[in-house]
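Input.
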Amino acid sequence: MLSAMEGILLFIATTEAVMGVLGSSFIALVNCTDWIRRKKLSKIDFILTGLAFSRIFTIWLITLDAYSKVLFQNIFMTSDLSKCIYYIWVIIIYLNIWLANSLNIFYLLKIANFSHSIFLWLKRRTDKVFAFLTGCLIIMWLTSFPLAAKVIKDVKMSNTSWLIDPEKSELLISYVFANMGVISLFVMALTACFLLIISLWRHTRWMQSHDSRFWDLNGEAHVKAMKVLISFITLFILHFMGFFIEALCLFLTENKLLFIFGFTMASMYPWCHSFILILTSSQLKQALMRVLKRLKCCET
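Output.
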């Protein structure tokens, strides 16, 4: 039986999951409709569409995993469902973070202004950058599956429900190595965001000191872009902190409240960032206003 606080947090996390599915579904629907109408899709729109679909699967997966552990914890760890969820988790979470990382890198190459020769070389070869990132994703998948299998085997050998013997340091090491690719993608995404923020900040300062009219036209756009990136970094860090708390519950004594708190933090990023993308994209924002206008007309 859940306590009042556990029930409230679980309700908040479930609401976040529903909002995340709605926001990601809207982005996917708008981009797919535009793709069918124009019969072409840019790389960034392709990544956004893939990111929307992967987030839908990610939200359903973490929700299923959380409810299974909270409500059926005595059955979950010993059933084949945990094994199935963990393997699907490896595929979906890598794809989700890889797409977010690719989006940040392409925005960095498109918007940032650095004079370094390596950056200029990469800026002219976005196709090769995309191929390299795809190769990294495949390699991470191939290396993570054997490690994931070892983690699942060690968990089942512990013969406990949602509780791992703290003395089994090998299990902790295996778990960290199984998620090393996710950690690498996370670091790459944060690095790309910070570099883009530095570039936008330097460009904003240059506009302020050289031409006030030019600042009036473009300065607000740069400040808005920096705010979006800072919000993305904050949500991304909270997302991983939530996953870390959920994973930590495997190595601590049973604590449903802590686990549900981690689930709430992990669910915050998908829906918040989806709505940030909608509100900052002119195409998505216009589509949202058309939908709201039609709903308002239907009510009257």
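The chain is about 85% helix and 0% strand.
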